[in-house]
Specification:
The protein has 269 residues and is α/β, with parallel strands linked by helices. It contains nine helices and eleven strands.
Length: 269
């Protein structure tokens, strides 16, 4: 069972050609499933064009959104993009919307997907940033501050994501037909997926928006989770998250960047 995960394709910035080359490379790997882990294209016309590049693959495609995909544009509100427009357009093209439903594959493998919206838990501890400071200065590090107009704050979105992901993992943990779970998120979940730069205080100040370690603590408690693959930071990472009394989690970040899309391959025995 071979699963390929890519993210941060940003068609609105790179155009379709780098993505078409990516798809050609993926096709040569003969995947059983491809997962698109957010920041695919904004506005919606770019989202559609990005998804259409993957129609050439002869395998199922699963999709989850990233923060850029919720940016306002083309007359669409962020809440509508999240709740209705992106799910509908994804399903209309024949792809699976992972946010709402896990995928059970052959050989006892299951895939769960979630944007895993940041909750500032990834902030650099040595900077001692308060929640109030981060909220007040969000626009310095995250364009989401002025490009997203939904009615919730970051903690509320994070809580919704956490609850939805937890429900799915509880169900899979109780399913005897499932032996291994791959969690795919847009925002990273573990310290082991983050790059700290203590020599660059501006970078470290922005890490409050680079992860959701709260959701990561939840995920650690599910013994069937063996892989977590995320996007968002564009910094390729591969580390192991140790757990007491359970097998470790392989925690990775897709090394995609603007004009340089990449993927990660996971082969299940």
């Amino acid at each position: 069972m071979r699963v390929l995960v890519t993210a941060d394709l940003h068609l609105e910035s790179s155009g379709p050609e780098p993505i078409r080359r990516l798809v050609a490379g993926m096709d040569r790997e003969r995947p059983d499933l491809v997962v698109l882990a957010g920041d695919l294209g904004n506005p919606v016309t770019c989202w559609d064009e990005c998804l259409s590049c993957f129609l050439k693959l002869d395998c199922p495609i699963a999709v989850l959104p990233g923060n850029h995909d919720f940016w306002t544009g083309g007359g669409n509100k962020s809440e509508e993009l999240y709740r209705r427009i992106l799910p509908q357009r994804t399903r209309a093209i024949g792809f699976h919307w992972l946010e709402d439903a896990a995928m059970r594959l052959q050989d006892g493998v299951a895939i769960v997907g979630n944007v895993a919206w940041y909750d500032y838990s990834a902030r650099a501890p040595y900077l001692k940033q308060t929640d109030e400071y981060i909220i007040k200065n969000k626009s310095k590090w995250a364009a989401d501050a002025f490009r997203i107009d939904w009615p919730w704050n970051d903690f509320e979105v994070s809580d919704m994501c956490r609850a939805r992901l937890r429900r799915q993992l509880v169900e899979l943990q109780a399913d005897d037909s499932v032996r291994e779970v791959l969690v795919v998120t847009h925002v990273p979940l573990f310290e082991e997926q983050l790059e700290r730069r203590p020599e660059d205080e501006n970078w470290d100040a922005g890490t409050a928006f680079f992860g959701n370690l709260t959701i990561g603590e939840d995920v650690k408690g599910f013994s069937k989770v063996r892989y977590v693959i995320s996007g968002h930071t564009h910094n390729g990472m591969s580390n192991t998250v140790e757990r007491e009394g359970m097998l470790p989690i392989e925690a990775l970040v897709v090394p995609s960047d603007y004009l340089k899309p990449r993927w990660i391959t996971v082969d299940f025995d």
